[in-house]
Amino acid sequence: MEARGARKPEKALTTRFVETVSAPGKYFDGHGLFLRVRPNGGKQWVQRITIRGKRCELGLGSPPAVPLAKARQISLENRGIAMLGGDPLQDKREAAAELRFEQAVEMYLSAKLSEFQNEKHRKQWRSTLETYALPVLGPKKVSEITVQDVLRVLEPIWLTKTETAKRLRGRIENVLSWATVAGHRAGDNPARWKGNLSEILPKPTKVAKAVNQPALALSDVPRWWVDLSARDGMGAQALAFLMLTAARSGEVRGMTWGEVDLEAGLWTVPAPRMKNSREHRVPLSPQATALLEGLPRMAGSPYVFFAPRGGMLSDMSVSAVMRRMHEAQVKSGDPGYLDPRSKRPVVPHGLRSTFRQWAAERGYPRDMAEIALAHWIGSEVERAYQRADMLERRRDMMVAWAAFLRGEESEGVVALFSGAEA
Questions:
Q1: Helix, strand, or coil here: 34?
Q2: Would you tell me which CATH number, out of the four given (3.30.160.390, 1.10.10.10, 3.30.70.920, 3.40.50.720), belongs to the domain 6-95?
Q3: CB-hemisphere CA count at 13 Å for 141?
Q4: Angle of CA points 262, 266, 267, to nearest 5°
Q5: What tens digit of pLDDT does each residue of 318-355 get?
Q6: Which residue ranges make up each domain of the chain?
Q7: Distances (CA, A) of 346 to 33, 213, 316, 340, 350
Q8: What's residue 227's pLDDT?
Q9: 178 and 132 Cβ atoms separated by less than 8 Å
Q10: Fold agreement between 6-95 and 101-207
Q11: Residue 408: predicted pLDDT
């Protein structure tokens, strides 16, 4: 007797029926092939077949990835194998067990990369796996990867590149977890940290401290700004706008004209482009607005800071401006633009720290400065009540920041906000 909800149509299924059916149940096509529709709307092809005297059900994939014609072809092939005394179920298991790690990486990334909103993050995901994991794990079957294999990847960089190694471990774990769920391996995940690699490798916090991005010293800001203002090119313009707004490089490089209201002096970054997935309003100082008004526009390109072919400007283009500015200073006999603590050359992301230090020393409220940087403020409960983004007060702050960059900061700014609390 068929399970409740089973349907036997008077004739074979059609492609249109497979695409449109939504009622839960089993819909038979003939020769043991049927379409299972779950209550949540999910669909799966299933074949009932007798293998060596034992009745079995084989999953044949899901539409639309496996269309009706393909499901029929697979089911016929399985019937032929079974009639000759073979075992298509075992063949399927063996084929799944043959998947190599390098193949699993590609299959995982093709399915998951679209979830990563940040283009830089997507590139880093692939880059770390290709650089460190694939040379060791690439040719190995995912079903045969062990803890020792994972250690061969991580141990050479665990003490010297701890942050990279930590992220790499998580990425290997995700790929192997996908492989397990997809039926390509079984058992515990050899890249799991808790109760597994944690018993062998030292804790990341014990071997490496978080290193902040090199920031520009406040005393160097005016001369750095003069240096930058003398440079041409889209990368230099993007870097200047980044400094004026204290925004992240990716937010600036992905900026489109549709996000800007020049008349209102406002840049609204949509939630999908923000690190915290929350819309962010950026008040533009007159200097920032003037910079935008003076930019060329490329027909067919939506980007404010566009690459030569009209696409989004690369992160390297902005970083290269910083590097060249530092190198030019060094060649002239100057120490260059160095972080006052680490003595490392300044990078674009470190300019946000420079702004944060300036805001703190000038007495601006903590929350105002943190909102300007698009950071989360307080606990989840506090954020639920604090919905104002202090836009006009932040506008005054950004005007004062632009004046500081030009070396024109007035003493009145400090007095106005002195002693203000978050």
A1: strand
A2: 3.30.160.390
A3: 12
A4: 100
A5: 999 999 999 999 999 999 999 998 899 999 999 999 99
A6: 6-95, 101-207, 218-417
A7: 64, 8, 14, 10, 6
A8: 95
A9: no
A10: no
A11: 85
Q: Which two tokens stand for residue 264?
A: 């209102």
Q: Which pLDDT band holds residue 119 (cuts at 50, 70, 90)?
A: low
Domain 218-417: top CATH class? mainly alpha
At residue 91 the predicted structure's pLDDT band, cuts being 50, 70 and 90, is low
Q: pLDDT tens digit string along 18-35?
A: 889 989 999 998 888 999
Residues in the chain, total: 422
Answer whether 383's CB lies under 8 Å from 376's CB: yes
- Residue 364, CA distances (Å) to 57, 220, 248, 303, 393 in order: 68, 21, 21, 33, 10
CATH level 3 topology of 101-207: DNA polymerase; domain 1 (1.10.150)
pLDDT digits (tens, 9 = 90+) for 359-409: 999 999 998 999 999 887 655 544 444 557 889 999 999 999 999 999 986
How far is Cα 374 from Cα 372, in angstroms, rounded to an integer?
5
Q: Which of 147-161, 188-202, 210-224, 282-296 has the lowest mean pLDDT?
A: 210-224
Number of Cβ atoms within 10 Å of the Cβ of 261: 12
Edge-to-edge order in the sheet of strand 25-30: 6-7, 25-30, 33-37, 43-51, 54-59
189-219 b/e (C-beta count within 10 Å ≥ 16 → b) = bbbbbeebbeeebeebeeebeeeeebbbeee
Q: Are 399 and 285 in contact (CB under 8 A)?
A: yes
HEC profile of 178-209: HHHHCCCCCCCCCCCCCCCHHHCCCCHHHHCC
pLDDT at position 288 is: 96
Q: What whole-number distance in Å separates Cα of residue 264 and Cα of residue 342? A: 40
C-alpha neighbours within 13 Å on the C-beta side of residue 29: 23
Q: What is the β-pairing status of strands 33-37 and 280-283?
A: unpaired
Reply yes or no on whether the pLDDT at 2 is more than 60. no
- Interior CA angle at 174 toward 121 and 200, to 5°? 110
pTM, rounded to two decimals: 0.56
Q: Taking the mean position of all CA atoms in its chain, how far away is CA 177? A: 19
- Is the Cβ–Cβ distance between 349 and 249 less than 8 Å? yes
**Peptide bond preceding 214: is omega within 30 degrees of 0, i.e. cis?**
no
Give me the mean pLDDT over the 244-252 stretch: 94
